[in-house]
Specification:
The chain is an alpha/beta fold. It has 2 domains: about 180 residues, Rossmann fold (3-Layer(aba) Sandwich); about 130 residues, Hypothetical Protein Tm841, Chain: A,domain 3 (2-Layer Sandwich), CATH 3.30.1180. The chain contains 12 helices and 13 strands. The strands form 3 sheets. Strands 10-9-8-13-11-12 form a 6-stranded mixed β-sheet, sandwiched between helices. Strands 2-1-6-7 form a 4-stranded parallel β-sheet, sandwiched between helices. Strands 4-3-5 form a 3-stranded antiparallel β-sheet, with helices on one face. Helix 5 links the parallel strand 6 and strand 7. It is globular and about 55 Å long. It starts with a helix and ends with a strand.
Length: about 325
């Protein structure tokens, strides 16, 4: 009975959120091309609203309390709970009914829709959305595996949104989106492994040794979108220096289209990254935002992630 009521409340809440977006689009639809993503995408509200981007919510649970990431539980509230709750939170896949409802809504209001989801190596939502799209009688929705996460996923979604705003055709966007994904990366500066240990992603012995040695890992994604460590330091300062160095090395081969910063309750560190990257690149970040609860479950408080999207090679 509880699970049935829970599913009903999820659908009802997301329906309210959809009605707000539907009202916005009905009164002032900006394009014939719609965008769907998920709440691993942590674009600021002003960008989501401006580009009329719909998001499919992941679930977040603390013991027997269930929330919808980005809807009933915002990032700021999530990190307060993460500090105070003894139970470690768990994330869950978006409800199939909610996913279908958002896709139905977009198909009814747009000529075409691009649905850009978190890497299929990190979640099953891409496969679920692909199955839903394949079951449809029309071909209005193209489901895209971003092979990215959080701030790098944000930049792929933002790049598509800006292409739509600039008047690029649906077919032209489809022809470019894989290259945009290939030229986007995430560099995550992890403060502590204790949250990965609590969530079962890192063995307790590994976490204990890292804590004793004060090791601070840097985590990225490989070409398939699977998490991989790409460095480690013995201090956060060294981690920042290494990440800045990695971006500087990348700039020797390609210019930067945009970069952005997200953080898990670490605004001062995010601002320090912004200051140093501003000096390096000559431009401000596209945005600084809170890290999505879906990602914060594993990366934990203090983490900062830098997303960099490069211009395509000439």
């Amino acid at each position: 009975m509880y699970e049935a009521l829970l599913r009903l409340s999820e659908i009802s809440y997301v329906k309210v959120d959809d009605m707000l977006r539907q009202h916005q689009i009905s009164g002032n639809r900006k394009s014939t091309i719609g965008i769907i993503t998920d709440t691993a995408c942590d674009l600021p509200d002003e960008l989501l609203d401006y580009h009329q981007i719909a998001r499919v919510p992941f679930g977040i649970s603390f013991a027997n309390r269930h929330y919808l990431a980005g809807l009933t539980l915002r990032s700021e509230g999530f990190y307060k709970l993460l500090k105070s709750e003894r139970a470690h939170p768990a994330s869950s896949q978006p409800s199939p009914a909610v996913l279908k409802g958002i896709m139905d809504f977009s198909a009814a209001h747009y000529d075409n829709t691009l649905a850009i989801f978190i890497s299929d190596q990190l979640s099953g939502v891409f496969n679920n959305a692909s199955a839903e799209a394949n079951d449809r009688q029309d071909a209005k929705i193209k489901v895209i595996n971003s092979r990215q996460l959080s701030v790098s996923q944000d930049l792929v979604v933002l790049r598509v949104a800006k292409a739509i705003e600039a008047g690029m055709s649906y077919d032209a966007i489809l022809a470019n989106v894989d290259s945009w994904i290939d030229n986007t990366q995430i560099l995550t500066d992890i403060n502590t492994l204790k949250y990965m240990v609590r969530g079962g992603r890192v063995k307790p012995l590994t976490g204990m040794l890292a804590a004793l040695l004060n090791l601070k890992p840097i985590v990225s994604l490989d070409n398939m979108g699977k998490a991989k460590p790409i460095g480690k330091s013995f201090s956060r300062r060294s981690n920042m220096n290494r990440i800045i160095g990695m971006i500087a090395a990348g700039m020797k081969q390609r210019s930067i289209w945009e970069y952005a910063i997200v953080h898990a309750d670490a605004p001062e560190r995010a601002e320090e990254y912004a200051l140093r990257l501003g000096k390096l690149t000559g431009k401000k970040p596209a945005f600084i935002s809170s890290l999505s609860p879906v990602v914060g479950v594993h990366n934990g408080i203090g983490a900062v992630a830098i997303g960099v999207a490069y211009d395509l090679p000439k």
